[in-house]
Write a structure and sequence with these properties.
Layout: H1 2-17, E1 23-31, H2 38-48, E2 58-64, E3 67-70, E4 76-78, E5 94-97, E6 102-109
Parallel strand pairs: 1-2
Antiparallel strand pairs: 1-6, 3-4, 3-5
Helix pairs in contact: 1-2
The structure holds zinc ion.
The site of zinc ion has 8 residues, from loops.
Amino acid sequence: MAIAESIVREAEFFLAESGGAQASRLTIVIGEFSGVDEEALSFALPFASEGTRLAGAEFDFEKERADAECRVCGSKQACVFPLAVCASCGSSDVEVSGGTGLVIKSMELNDV
Ligand SMILES: [Zn+2]
């Protein structure tokens, strides 16, 4: 899975920068509009991390909610995935912000 591999690569880059430590735990934030399947990712990550500095690490996941602003009535609210529809006036002319990313929020390192 390409997404798991890119997370591992990004984490390895950071670990190499910080003196070649190993990671014991990663917290990954998944935006609800990122299209990333948390279950598939949690399954793929241990395989992608084999033989790397992340081998044996635990992975935690957090969801990031998306916010929407209605262009018709101006109300702001959190989106209800997968519908980007204004809860106040029912318009689908809403601008979604946030919730699209996939980021490594934090990493715990093993003591070397
Ligand atoms: Zn509205």
